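Troubleshooting log. The previous structure file for this entry was overwritten by mistake, so regenerating from the original sequence record. Sequence copied from the archived sheet and checked twice against the printout by T.R.
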Amino acid sequence: MTSIPTITLNNGVEIPQLGFGVYQVEPDQTKDATLTALEVGYRHIDTAQMYGNEAGVGEALRESGIDRSEIFVTSKLNNGFHRRDDALKAFDGTLDALKADFVDLFLIHWPLPTTDVDYLETWKALEEIYATGRAKAIGVSNFQQAHLQRLLDEADVVPAVNQIEVHPYLANDSLRLFGVEHGIHTEAWSPIAQGKVLEDPTLVEIAERVGKSTAQVTLRWHVQRGDIVFPKSVTRSRVEENFALFDFELSDVDVAAITDLDKGERTGPDPDTFDYIPS
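Regenerated output below.
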C-alpha cells in the first residue's frame, strides 16, 4: 500500500498530508464513501459539524476494522456555537456523533469577524478542550492574517493549522507564508477549485506530458508546496485517482507555472465578511 507522507504539527502531532474530505457528502452516503476511502488507503478524514455527517464518519471508522490510532480525524466547530459554553457543549456533540473519545484535530470553522461573538473567546474554549486531551491538536479555518495575528498576540496556544481556500487560481501565498513563519501549517480546501481549473491549458499540457490527470497534477502541486490536502469524491475511481499522487513528481518549472495561474479567484465566501450562522 502507498505510504502517505506525514507532516509534524507545531505540537508534535503527525498528520497525513493527503486525506479524504466529506464536505457536501450526503449523510446517508458518508459511511460508504468513508469506508471506500479507508479501503483505498486514506488514513485522514476531514469532516465538520456544519456538514451534518460526523455520525457517518464515525460508523465507517468502527466498521473499517482499522485501529482508531491509525486514522487521523478532523472536525470543526459550527458557526452557531462560538460562545465559550456553547463551544464546549458542541464539541461534546462531535464526540457523541463520532462515538469517539477524542478527535485528532478540532478547528474553528469560520472567524465570523463581523458578528458580535469574539473568535478569541471561541479560541480560548478550544484551548480548554485541548488541555483535556480530547482534541490532540487545535486549529482554525478560514482565518486571515489579522485574525491569526490576534491569536498569536492574545492567546496561549498557537493554532496547529489554518484550513483555507487554496488552488491554482487562488494560491493564497502571503497567508501561507505567514503560517510558515509562525509554525501554522496550511490545509487547502477546494484544492481543484470545484473543478474550475481542470480544463486550464497549462494544467492540461503538464498532465499530458507526465501522463496523469489534471486533478492529479493539481493535487501534486499542493503536496509539493507543502499543503495538507483532502479531496472529496463519492466515486471509487476518483477516490483512487486522487490517492495516486506519489509515483510522480512535478519539476520546479511546472510548480512555478501552476502557481503563476493565481488570479485571486475564490470559489467560496470571503472570510473577512462571511457571517452565516445556521438557524
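The chain has ten helices and ten strands. Archived copy saved in two places this time.
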